[in-house]
Amino acid sequence: MKTEPLSRRTFLRGVGGASLGLPWLDSVAASPAAKPDTRLAFFYLPNGLVRKGFFPGEGDAKLPGFAGQNNVWRFEGETVPAGTHPITITPTLESLHAVKDKVTLITGMDRTFQHGTDSHAQAASCYLTRSAPYTLENSVYPLDRTLDHVAADHIGQKTPFATLELSCNDAKDNIESIYFDNMSWYGPGHVAPSIRNPRDVYDRLFSTDAASRYRNITDLVLGNAHQLEKKLGRADREKFGEYFEAVREIEKRMDRLDTMRAEVAEYKTERPGEHLPRNEYIYLMSDLMITALQAGLTNVSTFMIAPERWQTTTKFEGILEQPRSHHAMTHNMGKFVDELLKLDRWHVGAYTRMIQKMDAIEEANGSTLLDNTIFTLGCGLGDGSTHQYNDLPLVVAGGGGGRLKLGSHVHCERGTPLANLWLTQMQALGIERERYADSTGMVNAILA
Which domains occur in the chain, in start order? Predict the structure, then answer.
């Protein structure tokens, strides 16, 4: 094939129209002068976190009891003063110690619960909404277009995919509505469905449907890849080789997971998640998201670790002694607190793993993928046992293209809307907006 002048948006093309996105390469035409895109990504944790493990100053607090649904209970334990402080690494945040200069811990932000639906359903579906509570007529959900799509209207129009919605919920025992299991919405009642199978994510990103007789994209483009390598400088050859091998490693891991799924299917089990390695499932999906951001396939992505309130039992090797329902454990916190704390630490560790991987991916002018991304970890509930909408757990990683301050703990005044953070992130992305949902201002402490 004749190789045309390349840019970061150019794809290596193989048989059947399959393609492999390219990372940032200094040797590629026009690369050095171009400014990397700013990306926006979200890492959503369901059912809240154990407060005493996550929040500074609450380590000795008593565990709250189950407080029922749809309440407005507020935790009244020890707190830190409003303002900016050094980051305190609590047990749940232990993994962030290695990257604490790359993140900002944000506490004290609230949401308003609109009565009429379940608290878990609103926690997920309305987490990123641009609608203020009680403003939509004929809707029990304050749910309108979500932040990922609002942002994609501005920063996602030049990528192959405006947004990428991922979820690590491939269970089939659904007893809940779509509002418990989706955080991304085009508008009221119009969900942006998540991709839940790593193979489906891979096929969507690399267009292998048209080449179904080949299983893996690197087999298709291998010859073209070697031709491209000859045109690259030494540093870029190493960078491209690492990227190419990373994609091949993803393929091998998918093949192993597919084999395990097939073996489990032979047993016709009703709960396949109890027999599959959930740790690897989450790692694989997260690596696919990073690859999509790295290769310029999308600039905006949401990633749900699991759904809200589903009773599905899942297996975490080396973390839980047996398959458990995360939601059920939060309603019996006194019995399962140790397991919940372990699970919370692992989830934050999975987020940290993504931060470190993104920080190791070099882009233009010595910046990294993390430097050019706003990557937020958060929950729609401040506590899974009480279902409170107050004092939500939040961590923001990445510099947003140099527009965000990092390395501190910002504790907001009581009553500060979560929408203030979303408005601030829009400002960092260059999106001019006076208000977003029920925002009352911006979180200026995190703006550079």
Answer: 19-58+67-446 (3.40.720)
* Tokens matching residue 307: 């759904």
Helical H segments across 156-296, by residue range: 198-206, 217-229, 234-266, 278-294
Chain-centroid distance, C-alpha 378: 9
Task: Determine the Cα–Cα distance for residues 281 and 98; give it in Å rounded to an integer.
Answer: 24
322 close to 184: Cβ distance less than 8 angstroms: no
Question: 338 CB contacts (<8 Å, ≥6 apart)?
Answer: none
Please enumerate in sequence order all residues whose Cβ is within 8 A of that of 425, keeping only pairs 6 or more positions apart, or say none: 40, 147, 151, 374, 376, 396, 400
Match 């029990």 to its residue by tokens. Answer: 140
Given this model, what pLDDT does residue 400 score?
96
Task: Quickly list H helices, 110-233.
Answer: 119-125, 147-155, 198-206, 217-229
- Please check whether residue 89 is in contact with residue 408, taking contact to mean a CB–CB distance below 8 angstroms: no
Mean pLDDT of the 216-227 span: 62
pLDDT tens string 65-81: 887 766 666 667 657 89
Return the closest-CA partner of residue 105 out of 49, 47, 168.
Answer: 49
Q: Which residue has the tokens 């989450």?
A: 282
Q: How far apart are CA 388 and CA 75, in angstroms?
A: 8
pTM to 2 decimal places: 0.92
Asked if 288 contacts 298 with a C-beta cutoff of 8 angstroms, the reply is no
Q: How many CB atoms lie within 10 A of CB 229?
A: 13
Q: 362: which strand partners?
A: 368
Note whether 304 and 124 are within 8 A (CB): yes
Q: Is the pLDDT of residue 403 over 80?
A: yes
Residue with tokens 């200094």: 26
CB-CB contact of 103 with 395 (8 Å): yes
Residue 189: burial class (beta carbons within 10 Å; 0-12, 13-18, 19+): exposed
Q: Tokens at residue 44, please?
A: 């959503």
Report pLDDT for 252.
92
Local structure of 394: helix, strand or coil: strand
Alpha helices in 379-438 (DSSP H): 419-428
